[in-house]
UniProtKB/TrEMBL annotation:
Family annotation (SMART domains): HTH_XRE
Pfam families: HTH_31
Domain HTH cro/C1-type: start-end pairs: 12-66
Alphabetical list of InterPro entries matching this protein: Cro/C1-type_HTH, Lambda_DNA-bd_dom_sf
Protein name: Helix-turn-helix domain-containing protein
Species assigned in the record: Brachybacterium equifaecis
Gene3D superfamilies for this protein: lambda repressor-like DNA-binding domains
Secretion signal, residue range per the UniProt entry: none
Length: 101
């Protein structure tokens, strides 16, 4: 079974390790307890949106990048191919979201 929290934890851990930072450094910068951040990275706890923003800010990464990476990993696990462009027929809905934002 694919779990969002596990994929999210792996993306956050990979980003932290790529930066050569310790869990302690990121937890201090994000103002999140070391133990809680560790549980999030291991996929044992769900991260609130506020906490997730704090962690991505501490990592210097846009939230959208992290969510896209999680989405891509889930798609691979599901065996789904995600196009880089919006499929025809869905563009109208996307245009409405861009105009509303």
């Amino acid at each position: 079974m694919i779990l969002f929290r596990q994929e999210l934890g792996e993306v956050l851990r990979d980003a932290r390790r790529t930066q050569g930072r310790t869990l302690r450094q990121v937890s201090a910068d994000a103002r999140v307890s070391l133990g809680y951040l560790s549980e999030i990275e291991r996929g044992q706890k769900e991260a609130s949106s506020e906490l997730l923003v704090s962690v991505t800010d501490a990592l210097g990464m846009p939230l959208s990048f992290v969510l896209r990476e999680v989405s891509d990993r889930i798609a691979v696990a599901e065996g789904v191919s995600i196009p880089d462009t919006i499929p025809e027929g869905m563009a109208e809905g996307a245009d409405a979201l861009v105009c509303a934002g």
